[in-house]
């Protein structure tokens, strides 16, 4: 699996908020739910509390890069496809890369662990 498709519809986001398994860390909130598509789908949100447009886009870029790394790891393998919604929190913009990566991986593992 080399990538993912973006979630764009509000219905998809609401479905994940309502039915998805969630995990909260200091930098991100992760929602995960299996899907019937043959590809992983991802939605990233960053509210105005994160900052202006530049800060929100930076947080989303950082999270998108971490997800690309996470999808290539052995611990993610399993053959199932998932929908993900990642909510960037205010700390995601300025925290160190190692802290953001650790929080992101923990959130994804916990959310996926609740499903399996």
Fold and architecture overview:
The protein has 116 residues and is α/β, with parallel strands linked by helices. It has helices spanning 10-19, 53-72, 97-115, and strands at residues 5-6, 21-24, 28-34, 41-46, 82-88. It has a 5-stranded mixed beta sheet with strand order 1-4-5-3-2. β2 (21-24) and β3 (28-34) form a beta hairpin. α2 crosses α3 (97-115).
CATH class: Alpha Beta
* SSE class: alpha/beta
How many distinct domains? Answer: 1
First and last CA, distance: 19 Å
- Helix count equals 3
Cα gyration radius (Å): 13 Å
Strand content: 15-25%
Q: Low-confidence segments, ≥5 residues, pLDDT <50?
A: none
Kindly report the spatial arrangement of strands forming the biggest sheet: 1-4-5-3-2
Which key features would you list for this structure?
five-stranded mixed sheet; single chain; alpha/beta; Ribosomal Protein S5, domain 2; 3 helices; globular
Produce a short descriptive summary:
42% of the residues lie in helices and 22% in strands. The chain is α/β, with parallel strands linked by helices and 116 residues long.
Set down the secondary structure blueprint.
Layout: E1 5-6, H1 10-19, E2 21-24, E3 28-34, E4 41-46, H2 53-72, E5 82-88, H3 97-115
Parallel strand pairs: 1-4, 4-5
Antiparallel strand pairs: 2-3, 3-5
Helix pairs in contact: 2-3
């Amino acid at each position: 699996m080399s990538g993912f498709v973006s979630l764009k519809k509000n219905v998809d986001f609401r479905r994940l908020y309502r039915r998805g398994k969630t995990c909260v860390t200091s930098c991100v909130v992760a929602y995960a739910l299996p899907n019937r598509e043959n590809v992983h789908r991802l939605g990233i949100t960053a509210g105005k509390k994160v900052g202006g447009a530049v800060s929100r886009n930076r947080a989303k870029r950082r999270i998108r890069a971490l997800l690309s790394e996470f999808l290539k790891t052995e611990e993610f393998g399993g053959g199932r496809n998932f929908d993900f919604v990642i909510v960037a929190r205010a700390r995601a913009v300025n925290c160190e890369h190692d802290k953001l990566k650790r929080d992101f991986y923990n959130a994804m593992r916990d959310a996926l662990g609740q499903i399996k």
